[in-house]
Amino acid sequence: MLQEDLKKSNIELAKQNLEAESKIIELKNQCAIIRTSELATAQENFSRAQEEKRNLLDKFSDRALINKLQAAADEVDEESEMLHRRLLRGEMELAEYIPKYRRLRVLYHKRILTRLAASSSVRL
Question: Which residue intervals define the domain VPS37 C-terminal in the entry (predicted)?
Answer without folding.
Answer: 43-124
